[in-house]
# Entry
Amino acid sequence: MAEVELKRGLRDVYFDNTESSNVIGDIGRLIYRGYDIHDLAEKSTFEETVYLMMHGQLPTQAELDAFDSTMRSSRAIPQEVIDIITSIKQGHPMDVLRTALSALSSFEPDVDDVSHEGTLRKGIKIAAQAPTIVAAHHRIRSGDKPLDPDPSLNHAGNFLYMLLGEKPDEDTSRLMDKDLIVHLDHGSNASSFAARVTASTLADIHGAVVTGVSTLKGPLHGGAAEGVMKMALEIGEEGNVEAYLAGKRERRERIMGFGHAVYRAEDPRARHLREGSRELANKKGQPHWFEILSKVEEHMRPYAERGICVNVDFWSGSVYYLLGIPEDLFISIFAVARVPGYVVQVLEQQDKNILLRPLLNYVGPTDLEYVPIANRG
Ligand code: SDX
# Structure
């Protein structure tokens, strides 16, 4: 048997070049198209950052206005897709999202167009429609009629409006906008890599986004924010934190919201959501959750020496919880932010495509004799 060097999980394997995002793991830095995530989170908007990621440079005001107008006018979904959502309303929000995204492709006249222009046009539309799907499903399963998108609101504000039934104030809209920016893209994370594999066969953008959303759902990837809030609710009181974490350690259970396959320092995205959680907790007069999670962070400091630091999901859950969003929707918010990121990576993959086809090292038996079933024991 030939000796091969296995790279399980494809860790530390560079399979292509990219110009979209750079995850610098040892120092905890994230760059989108040359711009530091801190600058974009503090100074940009989700629409402007999506434009930057999809087109490769920051827009002029006219370019941004045109892009924003296209996004705002592309949010509606066909009634037939609403009917499908209604027929599966009991499903998990991520299962409903991937199903509805797949159904949308049946209403695309040029679903098989995998040209750059075709993928970009359809990708912008899918990014605009994803929030509508998530919000419509939540309204339908709650016994309410879906709300039509409000073109007077930006992407983040309209998402919260359609989801919660009331227009958010400026601070809340800005916090969601920041949350979407920091979740947009992140190198070759599992779901973006999966979307690239789909795109590398020249399958269409709808299929690649469905692959991404399906992959994101796993608790080791996008599902952590829900686990963090579940942990905070289980802890209940600040005074319980130490004993709770000791129990998790004894059972060798992972602490959700910590650790990362690439970062060995604090995930740079976490600070923006930590600050958002602090401000929102104080604004809502509910400092309780922020205090519990701060205590968890404090007790997890020794893990940092092993490179297990806080990640993007640790604080996002408390923001969503304080906004009154149900826990099973936390991952759907991540998906709403990441869908345009999948579009960016599919565009990059297909612009210089190569079929992604790694090897498996076969270690099973060979040359077994086929025995007819009548002669088997
Ligand atoms: C995201 O890849 C991306 O970019 C993803 C993402 C993105 O934007 O797309 O950043 C989003 O997925 C963030 C991560 C969210 N997931 C969680 O918070 C779930 C909890 N974290 C882990 O399960 C874990 O840290 C991973 C899966 C995220 C990364 O784990 P690795 O790199 O595969 O490391 P590992 O599983 O091999 O663990 C190495 C050691 C182990 O200890 P030993 O068994 O060797 O003694 O570190 C320990 C692990 O037990 N460890 C943890 C831990 N994470 C790793 N111990 C306790 N708590 C944790 N959270």
